[in-house]
Design brief:
The chain has 289 residues and is α/β, with parallel strands linked by helices. It contains 11 helices and 8 strands. It has one domain: TIM Barrel, CATH 3.20.20.220. Strand 4, helix 5 and strand 5 form a beta-alpha-beta unit. Helix 10 runs parallel beside helix 11. Bound molecules: flavin-adenine dinucleotide.
Length: 289
Amino acid sequence: MKIKELFEKKEKTFSFEIFPPKTPEGDIKLIHETLKELSLLKPDFVSCTYGAVGGNKDKTLALVEHIQKAYDIPSMAHLTCISHTKDEIHEIVKKIKAKGIQNILALRGDPPRDNPDMVPGIDNYKHSSELITFLRQEYKEDFCLGVAGFPEMHPLSPTRESDIKYLKHKIDCGADFIITQLFFDNQIYFDYVKSVKSAGIIKRIIPGILPITSYDGLIKFCKTCGATVPEKVHKIFAPIKDNPEQIVKAGIEFAINQCKELLSNGAPGIHFYSLNKVQPLKDIINSVR
Ligand code: FAD
């Protein structure tokens, strides 16, 4: 099922992002434990990340196909374009279609860590908008297309205005909805939604929420993705950073409060960055749905 068809039926959706594990043990745990338990939480859809350099592309597609077939949950494959040639993208999309996958999160991707200054070649799509244009030209309405939005603007954007201008361009090229980068201060999301709507974008802007399960991990991750860690988060989590149980408990409480405020102020659902962990999500979703 296409995710945009869900939107016609549901005012708010609750969905999860998972990632393909890097080890065979991780694969077994995800397939035989985590996905079963996540499916019991009845997500409206599940999305699966894609390695920036495409290293785990087969795993992404296999996982999305598995979730659809085994659990009948609409699922979405992330697809990044800068590290693939246009021909490679064409071949991957053929596979996506052959597997019956109907939803793609169309992304540019980041340069590989060992080559951060990589400039995409002439044979590569440089921006997600080019990938979206290709998908719409070649595949018309075969896919529902999501895109990334950055409430604090994309780290490479010179200004917020420019970031929103290019977000509008992605929508004009054919994207159906937006999932945001994580954030911890809801006002940032509310201001972003206002600016995006003022730019004439009427598609859903689903907030991406990370349940905090590690303080050090959070600091490291936010540095790479450009999200701000507000003072209130430092205050809660820094003093308990060496107590994993307390961190998880506080992370659940923080996410519940964050989601409740978002939902009661018009957010069209929540996309949870699950990090392939079930327990925090179970408590959060049961409390906010
Ligand atoms: P783009 O839309 O191409 O934008 C990138 C930058 O270029 C922005 O500054 C934008 O304003 C600017 N820009 C856009 N179009 C133009 C244009 N035509 N001309 C000039 N400038 C332009 N990464 C992965 O590797 N794998 C994943 O699975 C993954 N999943 C993600 C899921 C979500 C919800 C989010 C928010 C991010 C995800 N990312 C993932 C990270 C993402 O790939 C990076 O943040 C990447 O740097 C930007 O991707 P994009 O699709 O937003 O790029």
